[in-house]
């Protein structure tokens, strides 16, 4: 019994230390990638949730709950969650894609990008990378919300500047919203 109490105390201390390290690491990485605070908090909470599930599993094993009992419990929980999430598959894939984008997406807020899409030109500046989509302000002045799961499946071209992006655009320089505003102010 004393061994179990000692192991549980050790697990609790390890849980506290590792969760603080995890939170500070995600915060540092988010600041390095210029992610907004809401996104950093979201990713930190998602990773902490997974770590907490592992912690609870380890506590159950220390307390002597058998593998068979845990397997039955977790398979029941996963079956219910799986059925619930199957109806919302796109939401789950966008959340997963959001985590992948946070850790591995080579583009940041403020970058000029073009999503290679045969149906439409998605070329502009990345305004925000949120939980479910990337918001792009196009040269034409429109705002595009592009789902995270789709942006991982498409080729994305990053430009060094607005001028380089504009050179690749199907829109002419006179049709962009900034030039329209400049033309209107010049005529007044």
| Major sheet attributes | 5 strands, antiparallel
Instruction: Indicate the overall shape.
Output: elongated
Distance between the termini: 85 Å
| Proportion of helical residues | 55-70%
Q: Total strand count, please?
A: 5
Indicate the low-confidence ranges by residue numbers. 172-188
What are the secondary-structure elements, in order, as H or E? HHHHEEEEHEHH
Strand content: 5-15%
Label the structural class: alpha+beta
How would you state the average pLDDT, rounded?
A: 80
Separate helix tally: 7
Rounded radius of gyration (Å): 23 Å
Identify the strand order in the major beta sheet. 4-3-2-1-5
How would you portray this structure in words?
- The protein has a five-stranded antiparallel β-sheet with strand order 4-3-2-1-5.
- Helix 1 packs antiparallel against helix 2.
- Strand 1 (112-115) and strand 2 form a beta hairpin.
- The chain has seven helices and five strands, in the order H-H-H-H-E-E-E-E-H-E-H-H.
- 61% of the residues lie in helices and 14% in strands.
- It has helices at residues 2-32, 37-62, 67-86, 89-104, 148-151, 162-167, 177-187, and strands at 112-115, 122-129, 133-138, 143-147, 156-159.
- Mean pLDDT is 80; it is low at 172-188.
- It is of the alpha+beta class and 188 residues long.
